[in-house]
Amino acid sequence: MPRDVLREMLESRPLPMREEFVDGQKLTTKVLEQIDISKDKHVQPHGFSDKAAYYTVKVLRTLPDTYFGKNHYMRVVMLETIAAVPGMVGAMWRHLKSLRTMSEDNGWICHLLHEAENERMHLMTWMKCLKPTFWDRLLVLGAQGVFFNAYLLLYMVSSKTAHRFCGYLEEEAITSYTHFLNDIDAGVIENAPAPQIAIDYYNLHPSASVRDVVLAVRADEAVHRDANHFLSECISLNQEDIFSKVKKTEKLKTDTHNSTVDPHGSSSFA
Questions:
Q1: In Å, what is the CA distance from 220 to each residue of 55, 88, 129?
Q2: Cβ neighbours of 68 (radius 10 Å)
Q3: What is the pLDDT of residue 254?
Q4: Where are the alpha helices (DSSP H) in 127-241?
Q5: For labelling, which of 8, 65, 74, 256 has a CA lying 20 to 30 Å from the CA of 238?
Q6: Is the pLDDT of residue 162 over 90?
Q7: pLDDT tens digits for 179-204?
């Protein structure tokens, strides 16, 4: 194996979405519970495309509700095999668009790839907690095949609607993980030790439990919810140059800071 390929493979590792998980300090249950995810946050649909996205997600939710019921582990495995698709599809489409137009992507591709990888790590975590049957694997294969092609077509027709759809999908994911959490607290599901892959990925305390993992994953889903609603709004407003928005925000913060602090370091309001 070429040395640079070996180095790249050894040094590269998946990273979680939230800064709380990469700060270095081992996270306890108390810290995880204090992460503000605004679990009841909902973006009201406006216009036909938003409403179509919202009600499609609501209809699709009835399928796992009916089939899996209280089998939360298999439910989240199915959820993550689907949730990891949109980021990859969006990144692939925008990558090809960047090549076709020979222009910068301005921040979309890296974020969408990170989103897809993050959802895949959720799946790898839950796979340590159960053994899907042959039928379950066949169901995943069929669902992923249908969803990939349907979402790709949607993204080609209306990327705005595609991201809005994902925003609503993540809202439902938060609801599903909240139900998972409630059943653990009620004793319906055993609060087993957390898989080592989750402890390493989320920088959790060595004694972390499945409940801690559910809290961490739910916090990730809140990021995806907010991000996809934000990206949908950017497309709607024709403001897809995310880097320019970030630079303007950072410049505004710097200018505000400089206007309130004198050269000697004291506040101008003192």
A1: 23, 17, 19
A2: 18
A3: 63
A4: 134-157, 159-185, 196-202, 210-236
A5: 256
A6: yes
A7: 999 999 999 999 999 999 999 999 99
Secondary structure (3-state) at 130:
coil
The closest alpha carbon to 77, from 113, 119, 16, belongs to: 119
Confidence bin at 268 (pLDDT 50/70/90):
very low
83: Cβ–Cβ under 8 A, 6 or more apart, which residues?
119, 122, 169, 170, 173, 224
Q: Is the dihedral of CA 213, 218, 244, 112 positive or negative?
A: positive
Q: Are the C-beta atoms of 140 and 112 separated by less than 8 Å?
A: no
Helical (H) or strand (E) element with 52: helix 47-67
d(CA 67, CA 137) in angstroms, rounded, equals 14
Q: What's the predicted TM-score (pTM) here?
A: 0.86
Tokens describing residue 130 = 């159960």
Residue 195: name the closest of 222, 173, 216, 220 by CA.
216
Q: Determine contact, residues 53/165, Cβ cutoff 8 Å.
A: yes
